[in-house]
Amino acid sequence: MDKKKFVVGMIVFGSLWGFSECIIGPAMGDAGFPSGAIMGGLFAVGLMVLSRSMFRQPGMQLGMGLIAGCMRMFNPFGSCIVCSAIAIAAEAALFELIWSAISKDLHKSKNPVMMVSLGVISGYSVFVGGYIVTQILTPIVSSSTFYLENLIAFLPQILARGTLAAILGAIIVPVALLMRIPDISKVKDRLYYPTAMGISVISWVIVIGNFLLSA
After folding, report:
1. pTM of this prediction exceeds 0.85
2. What is the C-alpha separation between 197 and 215, in angstroms, rounded?
3. CA angle 52-115-103, nearest 5°?
4. pLDDT digits (tens, 9 = 90+) for 170-179
């Protein structure tokens, strides 16, 4: 895989992830949907699995999470922007840990049980793990005090919320793995780079523009 194509792919997928967190997530929250579980189990896991299938490069999803987390800082909505950015980065790190031992050619597998199982594990672990990491790191980053008893008190609620993320993961992972994935190495540069960077720029412009209008 060409390193330049890899980096550009990481930017475009990270930008799409950040766009979904900044624009789609708040819209769903305003409509009364459980946006956290949906964003984690559907959008985050879906984009990470799709990018993993396309590029087959470990570490890409962590970079995507860092980009999306930075992008989330431009979102004026929500009670805790910093903790949301931390959650996104934590979700990416957890995905990398879960998928580190998985074959790069997993998208060729047609075993539905394996794909659904991976979806359940990925969706649940990414959402719940990201939520727990956020509860631990946010007080530290914000120069506050972390109280273990507070985390323990809310742990049953956090674990229960992961059910929806697991169900969504069971749906989106097989869909992403069964999609016809183009061979990125064979895509012509004159098509790949303008398209990828155009999507990235548009995503950032919309998010930053939304931030400036809401400031």
Report:
1. yes
2. 27
3. 45
4. 999 999 988 8
Buried b (16+ CB within 10 A) or exposed e, 171-181: bbbbebbeeee
Contacts of residue 170, defined as CB under 8 A and 6 or more positions apart, other chains included, come to 116, 119, 120, 123
Give the side-chain half-sphere CA count within 13 A for 26.
Answer: 18
Cα–Cα distances (Å) from 135 to 2, 38, 53, 166, in that order, read 38, 19, 31, 20
Q: Give the whole-angstrom CA distance, residue 81 versus residue 75.
A: 7
pLDDT of residue 111 exceeding 80, the answer is yes
Q: In angstroms, what CA-CA distances link 73 with 25, 35, 49, 143, 188?
A: 14, 17, 24, 18, 34
Quote the CA–CA distance of 56 and 14 in Å, as a whole number. 16
The CA-CA-CA angle for residues 15, 20, 24, to 5°, reads 155
**pLDDT attached to residue 122:** 94
Rounded to whole angstroms, how far apart are CA atoms 79 and 127? 18
Rounded Cα–Cα distance for residues 51 and 70 (Å)? 19
Query: Helix, strand or coil for residue 56?
Result: coil
Could you report the per-residue pLDDT of 133-172, keeping only the tens digit for each? 988 888 887 777 778 888 888 899 889 989 999 999 999 9
Q: At what angle do helices 148-178 and 112-141 cross, to 10 degrees?
A: 140
The answer to whether 48 and 54 are in contact (CB under 8 A) is no
Q: How far apart are CA 30 and CA 50, in angstroms?
A: 28
Q: Please give the single-letter amino acid code of residue 117.
A: S
